[in-house]
Amino acid sequence: MRILRLLMLMAALACVIPTEFSRAQEATGGSADAPAISLAPELTKPGISSAELDVRLVPLTKVELKQLAEDWAKIVKSKTEEVMEAQVAIAHRGSDVEDAARERLTQLVGERKQLFDKFSAVLNSWEKKAGDEKAIADYRAYRNAIVAEEARTADFETLVAKAVSWLT
Predict the structure, then answer these.
(1) How many other C-beta atoms lie within 10 A of the C-beta of residue 9?
(2) How far is the CA of 51 from the CAs of 7, 46, 85, in angstroms?
(3) Contact 108, 40 (CB under 8 A)
(4) DSSP letter assigned to residue 60
(5) Which of 57, 64, 68, 99 could link 125 by a cystine bridge, Cβ 3.0 to 4.6 Å?
C-alpha cells in the first residue's frame, strides 16, 4: 500500500514539476541554455514598413520582444557604424568635402532614423507587455547618446545639410 501511494505521489510530482519549471522559465525569459527563439524573418527586415511592423508586434510575447529588441539593436548599430564611417571620411577630407559626401551622410542618417523608429516601436511594444524596464531604458539611452554625440561632433555644413533634409 505504501509503495502504491509513493508511486502515485511520484506520478503527480512528475506532472507538476515540468509545468512549474516551464512557467518559471517563461517568467524569467528562459534559461541560459534554452534554444534561441525563432522569430518570423520579416520582423528583422530593415525595409519592413512601420505599419506592418506594428501589426506583427501584436501577438509577440515579452520573451519574443526581448529577442527582437536585441536583433534590432544590432541592426541600428550596424547602420550607425555606416554613418560614423561617412562622418570620418568627411572629417579626413577637411574643407574640400564634396556635396555628394554630405548628401550621402544625410541619406544614411535618414535611413538610420527610420531604423531607430522601428526599434522604438519594438521597445514600446515590449514595455507595454511588462518587459524588462532596465533593458528598455538602456536601449533608449543608447539611441539618445548616439543622436546627441552625432550632433555634437558634426561640422556646421553637415548640420545644415541635415536640417535642410529634415525640412524637405
Answers:
(1) 10
(2) 55, 13, 30
(3) no
(4) -
(5) 57
Neighbours of 140 (CB within 10 A): 15
Convert the pLDDT of each residue in 119-164 to its tens digit.
999 999 999 999 999 999 999 999 999 989 887 776 666 666 656 6
DSSP code, position 154: S
Give the distance, in angstroms, between the CA of residue 95 and the centroid of all CA atoms in the same chain.
36
Task: Give the CA count within 13 Å in the CB-facing half-sphere of 76.
Answer: 23
- As given in the structure block, the three cell numbers for residue 165 are 533634409
Rg of the chain in Å (alpha carbons): 24
* Calpha distance 5→12 (Å, rounded): 11
Count of CB atoms within 10 A of residue 20's CB?
9
Q: What is the DSSP letter of 34?
A: S
Say how far apart CA 144 and CA 147 lie, in whole Å: 5
